[in-house]
Write a structure and sequence with these properties.
The protein is an alpha/beta fold. The protein has one domain (4-170): 3-Layer(aba) Sandwich (Glutaredoxin). Helix content is 38%, strand content 16%. The protein contains 5 helices and 5 strands, in the order αβαβαβαββα. It has a 5-stranded mixed beta sheet. α3 links the parallel β2 and β3 (116-119). 33% of the residues are buried.
Length: 177
């Protein structure tokens, strides 16, 4: 039996090959939605830091860009959530999609996040997932299943929604551990 993570890794790599040769993956419908599984971050070619071990954890994956004003506003909230929920099993991973590494680095250096930041400079992951807008966050349960998607960041409204959803997911037990 092939694990869901291995299946997504294979699908991700096939999608990257298709994108490299055909250039039309960006036109495909959304690949990752609530109820689906998120591809394993350690198999997606991200750079800029160490990919945290997420198995068995509740994970918030946020896609951002240095030119995005709501992205800048979201980072203090994510740092706060990380500090409050890390001991209970929350991991936050922010994936920057800037093509220019210096813009990615300047953003991270300026905001000094307390959570993992990675760089998708080739935009392979963001294209595969078909992220609808910047920022967009995906909240995954302990089994890697996408449970909630937040396109955009609306300050306190998004923070309240995330807190409620994080509490729900932290109180659930993993099925596939």
């Amino acid at each position: 039996m092939v694990s869901e993570n291995r299946r997504f890794a294979v699908v991700f790599h096939l999608a990257a090959i298709v994108a490299a040769f055909a250039g039309f993956v960006a036109q495909l419908p959304a690949q990752v939605v609530a109820g689906g599984y998120f591809p394993p971050l350690n198999s997606t070619g991200l750079s800029g830091g160490k990919v945290p071990v997420t198995k068995g954890h509740v994970v918030l994956v946020d896609f951002w860009a240095s030119w995005c004003a709501p992205c800048k506003a979201s980072f203090p909230t994510y740092s706060l959530l990380q500090s409050e929920y890390a001991d209970r099993g929350l991991i936050i991973v922010a994936v920057g999609v800037d093509e220019n590494v210096s813009e990615y680095t300047a953003f991270v250096d300026r905001l000094k996040p307390t959570f993992a930041t990675l760089h998708d400079s080739k935009r392979a992951l963001v294209s595969f997932i078909q992220v609808p807008t910047m920022p967009t966050s995906y909240l995954l349960d302990r089994d890697g299943k996408v449970r909630f998607v937040h396109p955009g960041f609306r300050g306190l409204q998004t923070e309240r929604e995330l807190r409620s959803e994080i509490e729900i997911l932290l109180n659930e037990k993993a099925i596939n551990q």
